[in-house]
User: Fold this.
Amino acid sequence: MVASPNATKVVKELGYTTITTLDHEESFKLGERVEIKAVPGSPIGPTLTENGYIIKGLKSDKSIYYEPHGYHDDSIKETAPIDVIITPIINLKLPLLGAVIKGQKTALQVCKWLNPQVILSTAAGGDIDFQGLLISILKADGTVEEFSELLKQNNLSTKAVDPQSGETIELSLV
Assistant:
């Protein structure tokens, strides 16, 4: 298990014992096959920022950037290009609070920075079943199709994909 300092506390309580904790800009190599680098991700309090991750195949030289909340720190610009981004491409909003999951605008910006071949949607894509009190006021804003059009309007060749839960997808990367 590779985790942020905050997530390490959680997974220890779940019974995990082999945990590599990464602070921002720290890396972990799994043999000579994969490198995982922690980068600044989503703010989760006034003084705490969670991790995003860059996962790189050391033999293929292919890379993935993962940030599940749509908060992309300027420092990731230096990692360009990235082959695949996994992040929200729609917004999830709460009245008066605004976006709790950032999508359209920040996903477009990170695509401009990192020039990925593919962006995979998280947060409200596929067949997620939301339940609870907040769900009645949570509002999704945007679609994968609208985001694909934004990519075209900005002369980006990135392909937007909305993966369905439980389905395998194959990405043909150059």
Observations:
- The mean pLDDT is 89.
- The CA atoms of residues 59 and 138 lie 42 Å apart.
- Helices lie at 5-13, 104-114, 144-153.
